[in-house]
Amino acid sequence: MTETKSTVLLLMLMAIMILLMIAIAGLFLRMNQLQGQVLAVLQATLQGAPGVATGLRPGTPAPNFSLPEVTSQVVVNLSDFARQRVLLAFASPQCSACVKTYPYLKKFSETRPDIRVIMISRGSAEENRQLVEEQSFAFPVLSWDDAVAQAYQVPGTPFFYVLDEGSVIINAGVANTLEQLETLVVSNRERR
Asked: Do residues 91 and 177 share a domain?
């Protein structure tokens, strides 16, 4: 009789453990769904809600900057990219949305040679050097400067500006996938 009770209790305990594991898996999936929804709401908010900081408006000349590249310390100026289209990315190694975007940004830079990618990255010099090494970025990653971020009215990271050949902003916004990056770089002139 004691053996039967022990077996029943053991089976009940196993059933409870299995139910707990299923509940934890369900919570994990729901958290991932919620994260995607929060990112979508944030993107929609940043791209046009009244009263929300959305960065500089299209048609605004891009403020020039001179910032050191994180691995070589060579000073890079925005004017170095005159007569080229530019995707200017503001990011941070501590930003989970940025980390998610890095592989797509790398792929974008490899598949779109017609658009120069420049990243201005927050964080320590060591974090940024490690980022460049881990991601094998072939585009310049520049050290963050609060004055530059303020001049561009960057509302958060990741945030992107698309500049035309005259260094005029033609689009701005948040992007977390390759498709969103591609959509962002399509200017109003190209959509017509």
From this structure: yes
Residues 157, 64: Cα–Cα separation, whole Å:
20
Residue 51 is assigned to a structural domain of this protein: no
Whether 14 is covered by a domain: the verdict is: yes
29 and 112: one domain? no
- What is the rounded distance in angstroms from the CA atom of residue 24 to the CA atom of residue 101? 27
Per residue in 100-132, pLDDT (tens digit) is: 999 999 999 999 999 999 999 999 999 999 999
Calculate the alpha carbon distances from 19 to 9, 22, 24, 25 in Å: 15, 5, 9, 10
- Global model pTM greater than 0.85: no
Q: How far is CA 69 from the centre of its chain?
A: 19
What residue numbers bound the domain in which 25 lies?
1-46
If asked whether residues 105 and 145 sit together in one domain, one would say yes
Give the residue from 20, 5, 180 showing the smallest Cα distance to 172.
180
Neighbours of 162 (CB within 10 A): 22
Angle, alpha carbons 86-130-160 (nearest 5°): 25
Number of domains in the chain: 2
Looking at residue 35, its amino acid is Q
